[in-house]
Amino acid sequence: MASIAIDQQAAQASPPAVEAEETYHGCFDSAAPVKLRIATGGAGQSGLVRALGDAFINDLAKRENCDPFSVTWLKSDTTGSFNYLGENAADLSITYHAAAEEIAIKQGIADRREYAWRDHWLLVGPKTNPANLPRAADHPNQTIFDLFSQLFRAAVDTSTSSSPVRFLSRYDKSACNIKESAIWTALGQVPWAEPISDWYHVYTSFPFAALETASRLGEYTLTDRGTWFASPNKVTERMMVFIEGGDDEADTVLLNPAHLLVCRYGLNKALATKFAEWMARRDGGQEVVRGFAVNGVVLYSMVPGVSRLG
Hints:
By secondary structure, the chain is an alpha/beta fold. Helices cover 36% and strands 22% of the residues.
């Protein structure tokens, strides 16, 4: 949902120019005009948006014999992506919060929502494990709430020690920030409320920088599978995974589904709609998701029940 006042008439007349983080051209010349602007966060940093953008350009050129065009990635978190739609700065967004996406539809900033892929949340922390958290792989009945509860107790108990247990929060209105906040509040904790708890490290940044900082400082944090496996070894080798979400659609806590929203009044709405249709196809975007790997590890899962072909 957009957290700004929306003036679609003004946005259509003069949409703000947002500097692209990356631009993709497929197999064509880099001079091809930009015809699609995609706002999202971690999937851009992992390289998935690049893979999707290049594949879409090449596929559309082959299928429709259209003129070459470029796709840009606008780096943003979930809330920022909604705002870009509201400002008409992006043609589509890829976000990770179902309720907010539905509100965006009701607000009128988007008029199509398509399931894009499945990511997964992970609780990670230092290998020294000062909170003495058990790994869910060894304790299958352990839940994320159990782990956060033990983490909280350890943080309080070590608050005056020379090596206190700390949790790093991105605190940036991202899907990750919203998710960890929901877990804390489910346990009756609001460590970001004044006075902010000493063990709650507020670090406003994008996924890769947040994980690197948690690794360097020996702190626990919530991250996603795409970020974890796409991060450098020097970051992850100091850490361990305590629990990881799977593909069970009933797991509303650790499953991190990504949805694509098409801007209702986008400058390139026709192409954005074609991208949404292509994203849903088994031989289109889903095939890219299925094969996208970093260092030999597939980062994301296709949407459930994919059978649509072009």
